[in-house]
Automatic annotation (TrEMBL):
This is Class I SAM-dependent methyltransferase. Residues 1-27 are annotated as: Disordered. It comes from the Bacteria. Keywords: Methyltransferase, Transferase. Residues 9-27 have a biased composition (Basic and acidic residues). SUPFAM superfamilies: S-adenosyl-L-methionine-dependent methyltransferases.
Amino acid sequence: MAHHHHAPGHGDHRHEQGRHGHGHDHEHLDWAELAPLLESQAELFTPLYEHALAWLAKEVTEPGLIVDAGSGPGVISGLFAETFPGARIVAVDGSEPLLERARARAERLGAADRFATLTGDMPGVLAELDYPADLLWASRSIHHLGDQGAALAACVERLARGGTLAVMEGGLSSRFLPRDIGFGRPGLQARIDAVEADRFTRMREELPGSVAVVEDWPAMLTAAGLHHTRSRTFLLDIPAPVPDRARAYVADSLTRTREVLGEYLDPDDRATLDRLVDPDDPASVHHRPDVFVLAAHTVHSGVRPV
């Protein structure tokens, strides 16, 4: 499959920050620079993805072609290669530097011979697939497209008869700290969530061709022409004391929250965040014993009628 070159697209390369991410100005992000970070974050979430893929594997048996739409650096693509050793995998993304990492990962996993990439913007780029997919996976990429219903319909068009579309959308906001951390006003993360929710709404409204829709994903999958819709939520639970890479993820998430949302928070919360991300402050997440990672992501799937 040819490597096409387009501007970076709307695949959610902030996979793991979820909405605690790099903001939504992703046209201005340097994906090559962010790639190592995105990769390490996705690796941290591997247990959650493995549970989600095991759930899908109960109903999707021996798929010939799996498409990872909005793949980022290909961590989940690699897990698909391991979960389904007989399948060909195509990672689709708007960023060529991230797909380079996906190809390198497939090579390390010994799956390069059944791994391909496709560069371009969702959902139009899916028309360039050579074959219909038996399983099309979109992890937090659909919500970056103005008309989510049309995007799902475009995904369904690229499914084989009897093929499955699975989208990871929704769940719960991640938690890293107790409600009361000993300074500042208790409940910081809940207030950050409220600001995030407003920003997310604005981001959706400003997307080209934005269409407001009730975010009932099973209903949206049904409207796109799928049957047998089902949903399941998967947990990432890394209790305190966390390993270094989980601590690094928390520090990075809160640092980006401070950069992206700081102006929308009140001065007290900004000051609290400043302390939490300051490596020289003993009360920061770099040093606190009570840091944890608790995240919940929901997967919705449906089957194209035979």
